[in-house]
Specification:
CATH class of the largest domain: Alpha Beta
CATH architecture of the largest domain: 3-Layer(bba) Sandwich
Bound molecules: flavin-adenine dinucleotide
Distance between the termini: 51 Å
Strand content: 15-25%
Largest sheet: 5 strands, parallel
Structural class: alpha/beta
Helix content: 25-40%
Number of strands: 23
CATH topology of the largest domain: FAD/NAD(P)-binding domain
Length: 561
């Protein structure tokens, strides 16, 4: 038996992005002990992503606009939206912005919102309120608040497993960078571990974003929803890998292969011209199969695949885009030059990068999952957005449902304070350690292979043959975990567990992608190029008592309020 340390708290929060921080702060205000466990450092994940200038957040203009925004979320989400969650989201954004302003966070705001078309959110049809969240100014203000609320922080600790007793949450097992196991006994938990972009070779996420929360939740009995919908955004391969591209500038650019040939024309149907698709592509960051701008990303992806040594596609501007009007453009090019050292006229090559996940753990409007004591918030959840998501609502989602989850989890903890039963903890730990999956090959090589397969076959363009091929290849990797090892000789247990999660989660993702035999939102199925009304159903993922993963089509709840 390897050694472990035990730690007791009321509410455990997993994740140090905006959802986790919001949850922890709200729970602590309700006079319970709160512990925040972060795989990386506090202020990490996509909420503090170094590959972008900051985060745009949108809010409704007024009460009438709330209804309009929810209707548009539903339309853009292609019907796969829980409207009651969208209403909760939209109704609470302004209050959460005010909370942050109260602790000293300063948002960038436009002088002339209605006159600035760069601020119409991606996929939206009109202006909403717009707030720019920047990292350096906000961190010290938030840190001060976290400290004043006595929130205990464990950085560089990874939650590996959620433990249940009598079907309710009881605690969690974590590991730190020194390979030390920690048991957190808690009455409730908020999973706020972000999306799963890290499962893709080219992604705009930080290395701590691997969908681990999804696997934790699924293994504990929670349901997952809308997993097949993940956004891809063009990012730079060169001059600085992993830099987000300003999509608003597409209409001033041409796309070329390494030999300098224009790539777009050959992918366009006869009746559509390059100029019109580039103009439309300039209105949204992530790919969508709903609009004719899809041909830009289809061309981009296919050309990237056909480059032997993966050079990406050349992005050449016809004018000086850095001086164009618009707050977003100005913020972006200022950041690009000052922080990234890149000028618009440098040699730039781009490719589709995995960006943000639109699906995840299924929650209700109190951020409850279907397991008592387990709550979830932020990008690790799904249902409030559908297939496509309106820009600026992912950060808003982290703030709104983070706060709700913190409140719900603290109320639950007050009612059901957990008493540590030493014998129970010992049994759980020894069962976990006895069943821990350690790989017989280098876990890094497994993750690299999974990422390659996911990027090539689970990207914006998909088809049955390639999805089945990836499933077959990844299934072969399961056998690496069949062996038993003495864990005291394994130097980096967390890496092995991460590789195991990569294999399991990528299989789940590829299976839901396979089951969705249509093109809807952020993916295009070559073999099923249209959206099909019979498919206006959720694919819900759950795990049976026997450990088998189940995929169930469920009708949408069209009228939920
Ligand atoms: C480049 C980029 C630009 C974006 N721009 C916008 C934008 O302009 N507007 C917008 O609305 N959205 C935007 N998004 C999306 C938005 O940033 C995220 O959806 C949101 O910040 C997610 O917040 P979160 O707290 O849910 O997750 P994250 O901020 O990703 O935080 C997840 C946290 O969980 C921790 N974690 C993960 N696994 C574990 C584990 N096993 N144990 C312990 N801790 C764990 C991580 O270390 C991290 O601290 C952008 C995303 C990217 C990548």
């Amino acid at each position: 038996m390897i050694n472990y340390v035990e730690y007791k708290t009321d509410v455990l929060v997993v994740g140090g992005g905006l959802a986790g921080i919001s949850a922890a702060m709200e729970a602590a205000k309700n006079n319970v002990n709160v512990t925040l466990v972060v795989a990386d450092k506090i202020f990490s994940g996509s909420s503090f992503n170094p590959y972008t200038w900051g985060l745009g957040i949108i809010a409704p203009l007024n009460d009438a606009d709330k209804v309009d925004l929810v209707e548009n979320i539903y339309e853009v989400g292609c019907g796969l939206v829980e409207k009651n969650l969208s209403y909760t989201l939209v109704n609470n954004i302004e209050d959460r912005i005010n909370d942050l302003q109260d602790v000293g966070v300063e948002f960038k705001k436009p002088d002339n919102l209605m006159g600035d078309n760069t601020l119409i959110p991606c996929f939206d049809k009109k202006h909403r309120k717009w707030y720019g969240f920047t990292f350096e100014q906000s961190k010290p203000k938030l840190y001060q608040q976290i400290k004043s609320l006595n929130i205990k922080i464990f950085e560089r600790h990874k939650i590996l497993k959620l433990i249940k007793g009598d079907d309710t949450f009881a605690g969690a097992i974590a590991i730190n960078e020194n390979n030390q196991i920690i048991y957190f006994s808690a009455a409730s938990v908020v999973i706020a571990s972000g999306g799963f972009g890290g499962l893709y070779k080219h992604n705009l996420n930080t290395p701590d974003i691997n969908g681990e929360g999804l696997f934790l939740a699924l293994s504990a009995g929670c349901e997952l929803i809308n997993l097949e919908f993940i956004q891809f955004i063009p990012g730079y391969i060169k001059p600085k890998y992993k830099t987000i591209m300003a999509e608003r500038t597409f209409k001033f650019a041409s796309l070329e292969d390494p030999q300098g040939n224009n790539i777009l024309e050959k992918y366009l149907p006869e009746e559509i011209n390059a100029k019109e698709v580039l103009i439309e592509r300039s209105t949204h960051g992530p790919f969508t199969s709903r609009l004719k701008s899809k041909y830009v990303d289809i061309a981009l992806f296919k050309e990237c695949l056909s480059n032997k040594d993966f050079q990406g596609v050349k992005l050449k501007y016809n004018i000086d885009v850095s001086t164009l009007d618009g707050l977003l453009i100005k913020e972006y090019f200022n950041w690009l030059e000052k922080k990234q050292g890149i000028m618009y006229n440098n040699e730039i090559t781009i490719a589709p990068f995995a960006h943000a996940s639109n699906g995840g753990i299924k929650i209700n409007r109190k951020a409850e999952t279907n397991v008592a004591g387990i709550y979830a918030a932020g990008e690790t959840t799904g249902g409030m957005h559908g297939a496509d998501r309106i820009g600026g609502l992912s950060t808003a989602n982290a703030l709104v449902f983070g706060t709700i989850a913190g409140n719900s989890a603290s109320l639950y903890a007050k009612k059901y304070r957990n008493h540590v039963d030493k014998a129970f903890v010992k049994r759980q730990l020894s069962s976990f350690i006895n069943n821990m999956k350690v790989s017989s090959v280098d876990p890094n090589s497994i993750m690299i292979k999974v990422k390659d397969l996911m990027w090539e076959n689970g990207n914006v363009v998909r088809n049955e043959e390639k999805l089945e091929y990836s499933i077959k290849e990844i299934k072969k990797m399961e056998k690496y975990f069949d062996y038993k090892y003495d864990l005291s000789y394994i130097p980096n247990i967390a890496k092995h567990i991460q590789a195991y999660n990569y294999v399991k989660l990528s299989l789940i993702l590829l299976n839901v992608m396979l089951l969705r035999r249509e093109s809807r939102g952020p993916h295009y199925r070559e073999d099923y190029p249209y959206q099909i009304s019979d498919f206006e159903k959720y694919i819900v993922v759950s795990q049976g008592q026997d450990g088998m993963v189940k995929y169930t089509f469920k009708s949408t709840n069209k009228d939920s309020q």
